[in-house]
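User: Run a structure prediction on this.
Assistant: Running it now.
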Amino acid sequence: MIVFDCPECGAENEASDRKAGKRVYCTRCDERIAVPNRRPKKRDDEPRRAPPVQDYLSTPEIIIYGVLFALAPGLNVIISSTLYFVWDNELPSKAYQINQLAWIILGIQVLPLCLCCCLGAGLTPMDGRRRR
């Protein structure tokens, strides 16, 4: 099939390859128009486009960053903040996910410490005397 535009009204028309170089009627304005002699370029002739950038963390990335953040609590904040600001403009979903992952891991690390402190404070006497 040959796809072409009508020079009179701009409507898109199509004709079989056998009608190349012949005249046909436009589907919109009924004017007789010439069918081009050649087909438009195929997709293979077009330059290759770069594949779209993945804007989310893949499962292996989540595992790698999760383990890294869990093993290095101090670096958790530095690494996640750096990645967030690097990715924020071009990969906003990925930046949001890395920030979420870092906060979740930090929460998991800090929660037991907070519970121990609260339990320890709750078990000590309030009158200021120590138990012996």
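Residues 2-42 form one domain.
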